[in-house]
Amino acid sequence: MNSLGYWISIMLLGFFGTAVLGLFFKWVDRFLTARIQWRKGPPLYQPLADLLKLLGKETVVSERASLGLFLLAPVVGFIGTAVAAAILWAVAIDPTVSFTGDLIVVVYFLVFPSLALILAGSSSGSVHGGLGASREMKMVIGYELPFILGMVPVILGANGTFQLSAIVTTQSAEGVMLLSGGGFLGFLCVLAAMQAKLAVVPFDQAEAETELMGGVIMEYSGPPLALIHLTRAMLLFVLPMFVITVFWGGIQLSGWGLLSTILKFLVLLVVIVLMRNTNPRLRIDQVLSFFWFIVTPVALIACVLSVAGYYV
Amino acid sequence: MAVLDKLKLWGLKKSPWVYHVNTGACNNCDIEVVELLTPRFDVERLGIVLAGSPRHADALMVSGICTAQARARLQEVYEQTAKPCLVVALGACACTGGIFHNAWHFAGPVDEVIHEVDPDANIIYVPGCPPKPEAMIAGVAKALAEL
Is A203 in contact with B34 (CB distance < 8 Å)? Predict the structure, then answer.
């Protein structure tokens, strides 16, 4: 049993490390987007400058908004992301702290940002916010099922365990899940769901800044908006970290493992950025039919393949 | 506290988000604003991004003569914007009324309309019909330097 101080330092590392790397990833995202569009792109400190500026601005709350919920929503999303990040960091640093079922706990905390956006949109008292919240609900209904089904091959491959450290050790002993038949299909499904969880094009219907003018986050200003942007930036790091832990051999923090982990992060980030820049925003009904009639069947095939024994 | 204020100011100078208000423009200035985002000028390298909502904005880019209909709405949009914020009067119409100076629907140049709600508002004038994109960037840069 570790001391309380140990857990607090893990939490702080999880938060600060994820925040710094997340802001960096945000910059990579904006920079690559600019280069793809043949522009010069923002400087390295741009996400930090945005954050500091928003922290220094006034918070305007609409008269029709429900004040408590409106201000609580960004905090809920932020806490969910920070706790998920802390668990993933703890497992990466010291696999012995992994407990039974922590995979489920991380998946659970990764739903928080989406729930927070639904809360934010519906408590903002704005029509655009309400429309955004309704779209976010449909998105959650759409992508959560394939997101979890896509992980079934991994769980079966690791002899039915829900423990992150066991999944990582299985992969180092028997090869990464990504390269098995069922695991690869599951990985593709989780990638699609990850894009939707990050709320980037083609799955940014809840915000849709050219259509809903920000949707769920439209009414936010000042520090709450800064918190939402920070949560977004952290998610851009936490979700690839989760995918690497589950499908791609886990996070290694020393020697050549560190280099390959960084490369894995970059590959996932470039995939996200390329998908975002080469696709138009889908209509919300197209999103639902994409996830229900294409991604979910693929995830089911992955499950069947794994049950039939093609997981390694 | 001085350090915090400096950080805030640095952030504001490095990341002005712009909300575009059309108060009855002929669309010529608006087309030039869109040009700012193209690869040739790429204002994102200065941190300038178009925001979808006045709540997110640090600068209101107002184009067009302020018509009688748009007047109350412009004032409301200014009040909804999170302070501190700048107002950019874009083009000859927004600065003075331009060739529509004696028109029946002209309800005062943008600076007077804004000063009615907030006498201390920061207003930048970028004249021209339409102003060149270079002139817009220079105007915003000068205003930020004086903050």
Answer: no
